[in-house]
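Hypothesis: this fold can be encoded by more than one sequence.
Test: take the structure tokens below, design a sequence, compare later.
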């Protein structure tokens, strides 16, 4: 069976969106509100404000109780959009422990708990749980390793557990949308580990990225149309890399080693193991 469009697309629905204060979350909220739907925005911060939703609720998005609290908002569509990337790195470009834990939790573990809570929650209405992934999920990268790994885990979980949830709770559909690069601060984070030449290449991608409003419209359209995994267009390089990763993982690892030596600002030199220091350029906004 292919696509199953929602039957209630013209009726007012309650759309719950996590990460409502962010680039994509606020664009999604504005889009749904403009169509007359009720938008409940979710933020993990006590003091968060947003004009992209009818009301905003606080949810720490950490554990199973938080997951159940989201379901208690009784959504027709629950968009798990909140996500984090590495915005700080350590010596020699290493991921930081706390950030690694938080990125996995927010990008992969918490959405997984929400999916399980949705399967447990009795409801008479159809519920779409839409996790926002990334086209980065198909290929590991030494320039954004924790982000890529967490989005890959999310994609695996949705595809593996979604059919079980559907069998257990036929009203619940677990789905994944994989955006490509979106104009905004998150897309700039990979520059943290890049050398000057590679930074320029990344900058061209970020500057040419579509605005969030355009991506939000595309995602909302896809949600109504049906389909299990939706995706923005993937550049040829992404498709080639994920094919290579699937077919020849050892060769792919070697390619990453080469990429780190060629494109990283921490690449080993003749004088020592690494050049460069930990960088807070992204945090202070200088690169954006
Ligand atoms: N931007 C891109 O190029 C791109 C590309 C592919 C996929 N995506 C995905 O699209 C989604 C939205 O991205 P975006 O560009 O809109 O990012 P963004 O502007 O950085 O917004 C992310 C939102 O996540 C929330 N968040 C951050 N840390 C959190 C935490 N520890 N706990 C709970 N919420 C937290 C923040 O909301 P509060 O702090 O208010 O809670 C923030 O509003 C993410 O899942 C991202 O991975 C983005």
């Amino acid at each position: 069976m292919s696509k199953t469009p929602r039957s209630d697309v013209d009726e007012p629905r309650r759309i719950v969106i996590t990460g409502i204060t962010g680039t994509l979350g606020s664009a999604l909220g504005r889009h749904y509100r403009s169509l007359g739907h009720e938008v409940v925005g979710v933020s993990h911060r006590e003091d968060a404000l947003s004009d992209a939703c009818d009301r905003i609720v606080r949810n720490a998005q950490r554990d199973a109780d938080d997951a159940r609290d989201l379901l208690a908002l009784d959504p027709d569509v629950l968009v798990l959009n909140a996500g984090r990337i590495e915005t700080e790195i350590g010596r020699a470009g290493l991921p930081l422990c706390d950030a690694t834990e938080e990125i996995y939790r927010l990008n992969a573990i918490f959405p997984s708990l929400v999916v399980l809570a949705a399967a447990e929650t009795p409801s008479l209405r159809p519920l779409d749980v839409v996790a926002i992934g990334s086209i980065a999920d198909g290929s590991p990268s030494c320039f954004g390793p924790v982000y890529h790994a967490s989005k890959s885990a999310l994609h695996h979980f949705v595809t593996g557990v979604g059919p079980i949830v559907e069998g257990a709770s036929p009203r619940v559909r677990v789905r994944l949308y994989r955006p490509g690069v979106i104009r905004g601060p998150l897309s700039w984070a990979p520059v943290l580990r890049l050398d000057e030449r590679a930074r320029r290449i990344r900058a061209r991608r970020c500057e040419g990225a579509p605005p969030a409003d355009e991506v939000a419209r595309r995602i909302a359209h896809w949600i109504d149309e049906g389909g299990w995994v939706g995706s923005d267009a993937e550049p040829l390089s992404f498709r080639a890399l994920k094919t290579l990763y699937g077919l020849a993982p050892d060769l792919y690892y070697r390619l990453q080693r080469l990429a780190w030596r060629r494109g990283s600002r921490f690449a080993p030199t003749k004088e020592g193991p690494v050049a460069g220091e930990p960088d807070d350029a992204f945090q202070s906004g200088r690169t954006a």
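The chain has one domain: 14-263. The two ends are 44 Å apart (CA to CA).
Hypothesis status: open.
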